[in-house]
Amino acid sequence: MPRVCAPTAAYHRQPTDTVLYRTVEAHLKTFLAHTAGDAERSGLPVFVKREFEAFLQCGILAHGFARVRCEGCAFERLVPFSCKGRGFCPSCGGRRMTAHAAQLVEAVLPPVPVRQWVLTLPYRLRYRLAWDHGLTRAVLGVYTRVLQDFYSRSAHQHGFAKGRTGMLTVIQRFGSGVNLNVHFHTLVLDGVFIERTQGQLEFHAAMPPSDAAVTQVLAAISPILAQILSASVQGRVALGQPAGTRVGRLGGAPPGLAASARGPRQAHLDGFDLHANVRVPPNDRAQLEHLCRYVLRPPLVQDRVELRADGRLVVKLKAAWRDGTRHLVFERSTAGQAAGTGRPGGGSAAKAERRQQPPHGVRFGHHAEDPARAPAALADQDLDREQRLPDFYHRR
User: Residue 204: which region, alpha, beta or left (left: phi > 0; alpha: psi -120 to 50)?
Assistant: First the structure.
């Protein structure tokens, strides 16, 4: 007798019904024509064009599929091929986020506390790093060496000599405004490992870094980066004894280079910004996966892209900006510029629609002023969670 399989709910993704797909399909040819190169300037990179074209074929049966058949009940299903794009495809990016986050939690990161350090670079460097992979690796090397030295020195001060930590970094190339923003999310094992007898490793958790300590880490990073980055891009002296200092200027007040605090465990210096106020306690694998999904997230999420009645696109920000901006509004004919070219700090294609923030706090989609609607499990009793993350990145 043939085996009877338990019925499963069928899920059929319809990419052609999404606002993003219809927009790209309708305006891609026009966008490519406007960005074509000529004798005086280069055009859109070929890989960007390929990313758009592959996105329009992602999940479409007409462009290829696999036929899957159950040996137990002979049920068959057609599974369309995906583009596996790494640029802006929300579907492929979401699957990659979920798979990689689970792999990190289950097979890579040990059950110790993990702290996220985020290094943001000045606007003038983001274009350069977007095209120069060697320079990006050099910046990452400096950044991680300073972090390693910070943890080793801190452990030594508490009596743990030769301690070393571990870390992994995700290089994100986008900002919350769908703009070009090369920055570094680093998950650091928040402490050091000490080698004991017979090669056994013993972990010692670190004390939470003070605001002054985060400022010192940033102050150690920025001058080193100034020495390896181009003087023409940085506006600094690249060689000689004054390497890393700013080129002398006449007229105007001298720029202040003192680091300033922008929040708890956040420092800002000469366009560089370092944030270290997110920590996951040991053995909290759910929160750790939450954090991994956050750093691995794709640039766009389908449910944050809406079509207004006037034909313009609205991209909802995951968190309001300091000036109260909650949405970005794009003309449909120019919306591809945000994903295709990515201007640092935004661009003329996008106009910020500013809405005042509500007078009360909102946490995880629940009004903080209403205790009945606030999830009890996420109350502020969890002292290790120094900063919350968007609820979307929980496993569904």
Answer: beta
Q: How far is CA 88 from CA 48, 83, 295, in A?
A: 10, 11, 15
Strand partners, 136: none
Instruction: Read off the pLDDT of residues 31-63 as tens digits, 9 standing for 90 and up.
Output: 888 888 776 777 788 888 899 999 999 999 999
In terms of Cβ atoms closer than 10 Å to its own Cβ (0-12, 13-18, 19+), residue 4 is exposed
Domain that holds residue 375: 302-393
Query: In the structure encoding, which two tokens stand for residue 335, read together?
Result: 């919306």
- For residues 148 and 32, membership in a common domain is answered with no
How many whole angstroms separate alpha carbon 67 and alpha carbon 76?
A: 7
The CA radius of gyration of the chain, in Å to the nearest whole number, is 24
Cα–Cα separations (whole angstroms), residue 183 to 123, 324, 344: 11, 23, 12
Residue 74: Cβ-neighbour burial (10 angstroms; 0-12, 13-18, 19+): exposed
* Structure tokens belonging to residue 345: 């700090």
pLDDT for 377 beyond 50: no
Cβ contact 204:197 at 8 Å = no
Classify residue 202: in a domain, yes or no.
yes
DSSP conformational letter for 67: E
User: CB under 8 Å to 158, separation ≥6 — which residues?
Assistant: 204, 207
Interval 340-351 mean pLDDT: 40
Task: Read off the amino acid at residue 339.
Answer: A
Among candidates 80, 85, 50, 83, which has minimal Cα distance to 62? Answer: 80
pLDDT beyond 60 at 392 = no
In a domain, 250, yes or no: no
Q: Are residues 157 and 269 in the same domain?
A: yes
Let me know: does 35 contact 341? Beta carbons within 8 Å.
yes
Q: In terms of pLDDT, which residue wins out, 346 or 261?
A: 261
Rounded CA gap, 307 and 330, in Å?
Answer: 10
Q: How many domains are contained in the chain?
A: 3
Closest to 2 (Cα-Cα) out of 65, 50, 60, 71:
71
